[in-house]
Amino acid sequence: MSIFGNTLELGKLAPxxxxxxQDGNRRMLNDYRxxxxxxxxxxxxDTPGWRKQACGLRDNFENYxxxxxxxxxxxxxxxxTLKKFREKYDIQFNFLSDFNKSTGRAYGVxxxxxxxxxxxxxxxxxxxxxxxxxxxxxxxxSDIITLYEKEKS
Length: 153
Description:
- Strands 2-1-5-4-3-6-7 form a 7-stranded mixed beta sheet.
- The protein contains 5 helices and 7 strands.
- The chain has helices spanning about 50-60, 60-65, 80-90, 100-105, 140-150, and strands at about 20, 25-30, 35-40, 70-75, 95, 120, 130.
- The chain has a single domain (about 20-150), classed as Glutaredoxin (3-Layer(aba) Sandwich).
- The radius of gyration is 14 Å and the shape is globular.
């Protein structure tokens, strides 16, 4: 057990969730079977760190598509806040609102009012293959691609 809650085990199924995206559409992890999935938790919408992290992923989005990787950003922010940010910065991937903090607790990233900044890489079968505990917002987008490419070899 970590200070944030659960410590997830690599090689096991990632915790399932059902959350609403910025447009109010329900999203479940199982919806993405057959694709690689990046789930990244971030503390608060439209802060300098979040902008840099999200826009880095946006700028590398074409590379993610080529590798069959879906990106899901999760925070405790409201759907309206997430929608505003997504539109403002022309982000192509979905943000999910974990307003009741259940997914944050399941993934062990829950603080009192925010999530910790942590990323989970999941394979096509829903198996957790890597966690990034110390996210470098400057290299996050390329770090993820490198880790998925290492998994292939």
